[in-house]
């Protein structure tokens, strides 16, 4: 596997091509799953794919 299972906020924002602010809005609205390990907010790589799929269905 060439890519990690968990992405940082910056990595996930880069994949979605959105700002950090927009990414946190997606997390707050439960459109993007994330988890917290101590003080770090991490996003599962498959959650990014799922978010894209859900947003495409809504459009």
UniProtKB/TrEMBL annotation:
Pfam families: HTH_17 (PF12728). GO terms for molecular function: DNA binding. Coiled coil: none annotated. Residues 6-50 form the Helix-turn-helix domain. InterPro entries: HTH_17 (IPR041657), SinI_DNA-bd (IPR010093). This is Excisionase family DNA binding protein. It comes from Streptosporangium saharense.
């Amino acid at each position: 596997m060439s890519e990690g299972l968990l992405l940082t906020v910056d990595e996930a924002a880069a994949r979605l091509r959105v700002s950090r602010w927009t990414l946190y809005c997606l997390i707050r609205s439960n459109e993007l799953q994330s988890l917290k390990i101590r003080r770090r907010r991490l996003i599962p790589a498959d959650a990014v794919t799922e978010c894209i799929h859900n947003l495409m269905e809504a459009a």
